[in-house]
Amino acid sequence: MVFIKNKKILISLGGTYEAIDPIRGITNKSSGKMGLELAKQAYIRGADLTLVVGDVSVRIPFMFNTIFANSTKEMNKVICDLVPDFDVFISTAAVSDFHPISFENHKLSSKYSFSLDFKPNVKIIRQIKDINPDIFLVGFKAEFNVSYQQIIDLAYKQIHDAKADLVVANDLGDENCGFGSDNNKVLIIGDEIIDVPLSSKKNIAKIILDEIEKRI
Questions:
Q1: Beta carbons of 189 and 167 less than 8 angstroms apart
Q2: Tell me, what DSSP letter sits at residue 62?
Q3: Residue 158 near residue 125 (C-beta atoms within 8 A)
Q4: Considering only CA atoms, which of 132, 140, 43, 123 is closest in space to residue 86?
Q5: What is the sign, positive or negative, of the torsion defined by CA atoms of 9, 164, 213, 177?
Q6: What's the CATH number for 8-100+117-215?
Q7: Residue 38 contacts residue 205 (beta carbons within 8 Å)
Q8: Among the listed residues 80, 40, 72, the one whose alpha carbon sits nearest the alpha carbon of residue 55
Q9: Each residue of 43-58: b (16+ CB within 10 Å) or e?
Q10: 171 Cβ neighbours under 8 A, 6+ residues apart
């Protein structure tokens, strides 16, 4: 029996881009590969699927209902507008934690040194349950060179802070597990901890969808 067939599933993927001037900005190395594999699995299983896509290096298949959002502010608005109508939200996007306080309307000259001040971006995932308390919320938590226990503790903190139902945590410092890799090893954390060893993102997506199906 397919438990997510016809369920409305929203997936965010890719990085966000925070503009400094009209042609420059800051972003991260997120490729969107994990989110795309999750989207493919949800589509195969019959979900009513919508993607919110930031800056990615993957091609998004034309059959997916896709909304593009460049900055964290844009992605936040799109997601907050959509989540009331969805059953599941899988937040794989690597959303920027900060944005520049000022934006220059002209290209900054390379002749001069300059410094940037930043302020924190809103935490999109922490708003979801306030908007739709019944949605099944899956967060992703990426860290770098932390201990096994630290990543578990940080995942549980996200569960507490965002009221997430599951958190998929990984260490980008692990060999073959950085941004853009075709493989990963993750911890799927909820009522129990599922340790998924190094595997393809396609296989990890299947395991994550299986866990969601068990719980919705």
A1: yes
A2: T
A3: yes
A4: 132
A5: positive
A6: 3.40.50.10300
A7: yes
A8: 72
A9: bebebbbbbbbbbbeb
A10: 142, 143, 144, 145, 146, 151, 177
Q: What is the dihedral of CA 52, 55, 57, 59, to 10 degrees?
A: 40
d(CA 182, CA 114): 37
Q: What letter represents residue 119's amino acid? A: K
The pLDDT tens digits for 12-46 are 999 999 988 888 888 888 899 999 999 999 999 99
CA dihedral sign of residues 78, 79, 84, 90:
positive
pTM of this structure: 0.93
Element (H, E) at 21: none
The answer to whether the beta carbons of residues 143 and 169 sit under 8 Å apart is yes
**What is each CA distance from 135 to 76, 87, 184, in whole angstroms?**
17, 5, 27
End-to-end CA distance of the chain: 13
The mean per-residue pLDDT over the stretch 174-202 comes to 89
Q: Which of 128, 183, 166 is nearest to 10 (CA)?
A: 128
Domain boundaries, the chain: 8-100+117-215
Task: Measure the CA–CA gap between 200 and 209, rounded to whole angstroms.
Answer: 14
Placement of tokens 């997601």 in the chain: 79
Q: Which amino acid is at 55?
A: D
